[in-house]
Amino acid sequence: ADHVRSLNDSTNALVSFSTEDNPNPHGLLSSLTVAIKDNICTTALPTTCSSGMLHNFTSPFDATAVELLKAGGANIVGKANCDEFGMGSLNVNSVHGPVVNPYRTLNEELIPWAERERRSAGGSSGGSAAAVAAGMCDAALGTDTGGSVRLPASYCSITGLKPSYGLISRWGVVSFADSLDCVGVLAKSVDTVKTVFDSISSYDPKDPTAATPRIRGKAQASVEALVSALDANTSKPDLSALRIGIPQEYFPSELDITIVTAVRKVLERLMSLGAQLIPVSLPSTPYALSAYYVITSAEASSNLARYDGVQYGTRSPTLPGTDKSKPSNVYAHTRSAGFGVEVQKRILLGTYALTADAFDNYFLQAQRVRQLIKSDFDSAFRVPNAQLSSSPQNADGVDILLHPSAIRTAPPLDSDATSGLDPYLQDVMTVPASLAGLPALSVPAGSAADGWPVGISIVGQWGSDELVLRIGEIIQ
Ligand code: GLN
Fold first, then answer.
1. DSSP labels for 284-304?
2. Per mean pLDDT, which range of 158-162, 175-179, 419-423, 427-431 is the poorest?
3. For position 105, what pLDDT does the model report?
4. What pLDDT band is residue 209 in, cutting at 50, 70 and 90?
């Protein structure tokens, strides 16, 4: 525990530390230490969502994912820092302060922590990623609404899975944008990610959007043959059955060219193992980011309405001179004092998108774009989407898509890249899979010219998480 605390001094990855005894020391997960993102409810530790609004909130119940981890015997080490309510890409929007990326570039190995370049760990699950990368725990739970598990995994050189939407229960996960929110898993190896994912991915009647056993089974069955044909346990697996799509829209001009070089190396290796690489087009991709920010802000404005100092949230005293007996004064002051700038920005944007004047042009338009993105993916994949009752088999389709996880390496903290619209751009590669609810895994793929890590993302059809993980094992 002292070791973890001392690593925390340099990373700021954890915001509270567990002292609980393991209720099931002989469970399947009993050899694992796990950190939990601080927007996932736990009874033993506070759940602050990195917000002033919840700085002294402790949940009366555990999230289903936490319950399942505990039942499996996992050793919970603490709660992980994040962007406030999951809003951000760099883990700089947090009342607990920014998370520092623990990745050590080779030539920095001998430089003391205090003198190293301080770079972002990515966000919003930056604390989860940094805790794993620094060796403070074996695995961590994060949440991913638009990239918040994959981006920090990529920046910190670890593995991060955003599962298919609906596979892991959202019960006890503080909502940001519920139609996209997914619990994700971070660890150094794909194997550990899979162990944790397998123990928490199950149907939960408490989550109204949980995927039913029938639909899970249907999706799994459609990729079963391929999964068993791809043996990850040999050094030269035969990938001739595998069709990999390379989406041309995922190589935009903003993309660092040395990231392309790192990704190309992975592709060459997969090709040498027999995989077929097929260029594909997902034409609605350029509209994904705008649609994402409209939809998520609209959902957030509604989800965050409960924090008014009466139902939820720390009530702030009304300003001197204002009428305390007027509830609207209490609400307004509580929300201005309790929420950070980014959260307030999203609430305003989302509320606007839902007003009668803007609804058609913004919210509905964004929903239409979301539909187009989904159909782009459905026409690219070989297997049909198990969630749709009728969707044609596509013999020319691909089994998975591969693309860089991010357009750049981790930005330095305290630079211009952490403010303005720049952080929004970091998600340009990750939001399409989120809008479509698809499984996506980021695995390390070497480093860029600046010596910092690069990640490659594997995206599959809905419910093909096992296939995505198998390809991840082969790549890593
Ligand atoms: N960076 C994105 C945002 O700020 C994604 C956040 C997330 O996935 N939780 O909305």
1. TGGGHHHHHHHHHHHHHHHHG
2. 419-423
3. 67
4. very high
Question: How much is the ipTM here?
Answer: 0.98
Element (H, E) at 79: strand 75-80
Our mutation pick for probing the ligand 1 site, out of 145, 422, 425, counting the most ligand atoms within 8 A of Cβ, is 145
Pocket flag, ligand 1, residue 431 (CB < 6 Å): no
Whether the pLDDT of residue 468 is over 90: the answer is yes
Kindly tell me if the per-residue pLDDT of 212 is higher than 80: yes
Q: Is the pLDDT of residue 107 over 70?
A: no
pTM (whole model) above 0.95: yes
Cα 311 to Cα 84: distance, rounded to the nearest angstrom = 19
Top mutation candidate among 89, 176, 430 for ligand 1, by most atoms within 8 Å of CB: 89
User: Which of 84, 165, 96 has its CA nearest to residue 125?
Assistant: 84
Alpha carbon of 363 to ligand 1 centroid (Å): 18
Per-residue pLDDT tens over the stretch 326-384: 878 889 999 999 999 999 999 999 999 999 999 999 999 999 999 999 999 999 999 99
What are the strands, taking DSSP E only, across 172-311?
182-187, 243-247, 276-280
3-state SS assignment for residue 444: strand
Q: CA–CA distance from 113 to each of 8, 38, 313, 365 (Å)?
A: 12, 25, 36, 48
| Paired tokens of 293 | 């920010």
Catalytic annotation, residues: 37, 124, 148
Output the average pLDDT for the chain.
95
Segment 202-216 shows an average pLDDT of 98
Alpha helices in 26-166 (DSSP H): 64-71, 126-133, 150-156
Please tell me the distance between residue 87's alpha carbon and the centre of ligand 1 in angstroms.
Answer: 5
CA of 175 from ligand 1 middle (Å) equals 12
Cα-Cα-Cα-Cα dihedral sign, residues 277, 279, 280, 285: positive
CA–centroid distance, residue 119 to ligand 1 (Å): 18
- Which residues have C-beta within 8 Å of that of residue 59, sequence separation ≥ 6? 41, 42, 43, 47, 172
